[in-house]
Every structure is written in C-alpha cells, then in structure tokens.
Predict the 3D structure of the following.
Amino acid sequence: MKLFLSIIIGLFNLSSCSSQQKMSKDISMRSDSTETQIVSPSFYQEKFIRGIDFYARGNEPNWTLEIDLEKGISFSEMNGLNIVTTAAEGIMRGDADLKNLRAHSEDSEISVTITKLKCQDNMSGEMFDYTVQVKIKKGDDSKSEEFIGCGRYLYDYRLNDIWVMEEMTGVELKKENLMQGLPMFEFHLAEKRFNGHAGCNQIFSEIDVKGNKISFKNIASTKMACPEMTVEQKVLHSLNQNIFTYKIEKMKLTLESESGLKMVFRKAD
C-alpha cells in the first residue's frame, strides 16, 4: 500500500513539475512576445534622420505610412499594395487639429487625414497622439480602399536633454551679469513640456514638436526681480512670438525663427 501511494505521489509531483515548466515556458513566450512589440526610440530616430516627418501604421491588413512633407508620401501594405508619391498638398481644417494631405503617383491617388485624437495600436498596445485615415484610389476605380490606424509626428530624440545658451541674436550674453548664469533650456519630449531659466526667473511651457519644428505654448515664469532683466525679457518675447526650426549638430542645438532670430546652445555637461 505504501509503495502504491509513493508511486502515485511521484507521478503527481512529476505532472505538477511538468505543468509548472510548461506554464513558465508559456509565460516566457508571452513575455518575449510583449517585449518584441515595444518600439525603441531608435526606430523612429532612424526615420527622422531619413527625413520622415510623420509615421503611421495599422493592422488587418498590416500597413505603414511615411510622410516627408517636402518630398512626398510612401504607403506599403502587406498584400502588395505599394505607393510612392511626389510632394503632397496639405489642407488644414479648424484649429489645425485635423490635416488632410493629397498626393498622386503614376497610377494612384492617396488621401491622408490626420486627426489629433489619441489612438492605441490594437496589436502592440502602443499609444499614439493621432488617428489616421488613408484612402487610396487606383487608376479609374470609382471606389477607394480605406485604411484606419495610428500615427505620430517624428522629431530628433537628441533634443530631449539640457542645453545651455551660448548665443542669441541681438543679445550680449555675459554669465557674470546673470543671477542664475547663462540661460538654460531642458526639454521633456514624452511629456511635451519644457522648463529652464533665462538668467533670472524659472520658465515653464508646453511644447509642440513636429518634424524639425518646435513651438512653445502657455509660457509661464516666476516673478523674481533681478538686476539684469534684458536677456530674460528678450528670451520670453522670442518664445512667445515664434515657431522655431531646430537642428542638432556636433553637440550644439540651434533654434531659428522665420524672422531670422537665432539661439545657439551647447549640451550641458
């Protein structure tokens, strides 16, 4: 009887061990699968460096969309539909939260509607700021194929750092004349915000970064009085009035407005 019970217990333990191993393997597989769906910032950085301003994707069937606002649109779908166009014509609607782009290839017309509406990829779970509708009409077809997915404007991830001002148009920067030293900007791209100081007071704002363009919104600052306020006043006036083109080269950040105002920063140590 004891021998029989020992055999039963042994078989139970073996089965339990096998089940635990299988469960562990299943969890590991699911974990690995989840990890492979996490998109590295380098994925988007590589596209930005190639000149892509906006990227979108969708599922069922899988498709991707890349927009270079200067050169055109590239659309690819898993069943073999591939379209590359010349520069797109854009139409803004309302308060610019919806944008419609149209472009043509040799035998197709593509229309892209970008709406500022949160969107979650139903395969990876990744969150996007924009919902995207793509319509494609081939040749003389009377109907368009429609694709719905999620998208985001791309930007240079290196901007996400702390920068110290070295130059500004029309301003003489002397560290010893500024209570907090040279103006400092810190960008938080994921949270879409900015903080820093302009030599005296702390400054804060929201930021909107699309491609190589950046704008500052709802700028606020502390109200401390300092002996030298000229630099701060010019910095705040500039941020309030301009949309800047930015570029990063050799550890230097340059912000330049359409009016020609320029700020040059070095990466903080």
About this structure: The chain has two domains: 41-153, 157-267.
